[in-house]
Amino acid sequence: MVAAQVLFNQTVISIPVIYFCYMLRNCLGYDREMRLPKPHIFVLDIVAQVLSEEVFFYYSHRVLHHPRLYKHFHKKHHEWIMPIGVSAIYCHPVEHVFANILPTFMGSVLARTHVTSLWAWLTFATAYGVIVHSGYHLPLTPTPEFHHLK
């Protein structure tokens, strides 16, 4: 059940939405420079993406906890109570788009980040999502209070 939903989200949902985000960047004339960005540009890009993701994820997650939306979209994510990394994307497809994919990409679109910065950010954001849902505690990270437990 979990594997089927995650596979669906990763293939049927993620691939077209990420492709759309990529095409949007190209249509808007974003820099596809093959040279690596200067270190200070890379740092600024990452900061912009982190701040953007924090804001967009926070508000999308709050909206998904609204009683009228929770039972239709976000409840599926909270069905899985065991701490396992793959549960990060065990969710309704609508939630996957609006709470997982778009918040992660919005900083890149809004700040016009270099593609290398985007890929570094996506790697970090994906790893962080898996770690948060795994139940493990890493140094310098918040306490791993698994948020699905009641």
TrEMBL record:
Membrane as UniProt keyword: yes
Record carries keyword Membrane: yes
Biological process, per Gene Ontology: lipid biosynthetic process
Main location: membrane
Limits of the Fatty acid hydroxylase domain: 48-148
UniProt-recorded Gene Ontology molecular function terms: iron ion binding; oxidoreductase activity
Superkingdom field: Eukaryota
Pfam families: FA_hydroxylase
Sorted UniProt keywords: Membrane, Transmembrane, Transmembrane helix
InterPro entries: Fatty_acid_hydroxylase, Sterol_Desaturase_Related
Subcellular location: Membrane
Transmembrane parts of this sequence: 6-28, 118-136
A GO cellular component entry from the record: membrane
Name of the molecule in the record: Fatty acid hydroxylase domain-containing protein 2
Organism lineage: Eukaryota, Metazoa, Ecdysozoa, Arthropoda, Chelicerata
